[in-house]
Specification:
Radius of gyration: 15 Å
Shape: globular
Largest sheet: 5 strands, antiparallel
Oligomer: single chain
Helix content: 10-25%
């Protein structure tokens, strides 16, 4: 069980922080195709939010960004500071309408990596996480020609070895 959590931390750790950000940047009055992610259930209002789009394929989901880009596969990343109040939203352009996988990290310290002890994580579809990352089928989102809205609920460490939404 601990191994799967360590593997999750290693898999979501970005290898090149700026990679994919330019391609993901939404324009004013973005026509799409793009995914507008609203983040719910934040533990606090510090740090940064990082949303990432991957191919919706088992071997590519949460794969190293450099590898995906070098192979010509879709990878997009948007990073914003956590807003002090109100809705937290990230917009990511995608190359075309289709099916993708989406992850969101709340890096509470503002670092580029993922801390199992402190940071939060969410996926499209809001799967129950428990002890390991979800299957790619549980983290899929279908992007349409325009703006595709979605809401994710953050999960933080809950107990010794699992992740769950904050109880309010």
């Amino acid at each position: 069980m601990i191994l799967t959590l360590v593997a999750l931390a290693a898999e979501v750790m970005p290898s090149t922080p700026a990679l994919g950000t330019e391609a993901a940047r939404c324009r004013p009055h973005e026509p799409g195709p793009a995914v507008l992610v609203t983040v719910d259930g934040l533990k606090d209002r510090k740090g940064r939010l990082r949303a990432e789009i991957y191919p919706a394929v088992d071997g590519d989901f949460l794969a190293d960004d450099n590898v995906l880009v070098s192979q010509g596969k879709t990878f997009r990343r948007a990073v914003i500071p956590v807003p002090p109040s109100g809705a937290a939203q990230l917009c990511l352009r995608v190359p075309r309408p289709g099916t993708y996988a989406l992850s969101v990290v709340h890096a509470r310290s503002g670092a580029n990596g993922f801390s199992l002890l402190h940071d939060g994580i969410a996926f499209a579809g809001n799967p129950r996480l428990g002890h390991s990352k979800p299957d790619v089928a549980q983290a899929r989102i279908v992007a349409h020609a325009g703006i595709t809205p979605t809401t994710v609920v953050m999960n933080y460490r809950s107990g010794l070895f699992s992740f769950a939404p904050i109880k309010r």
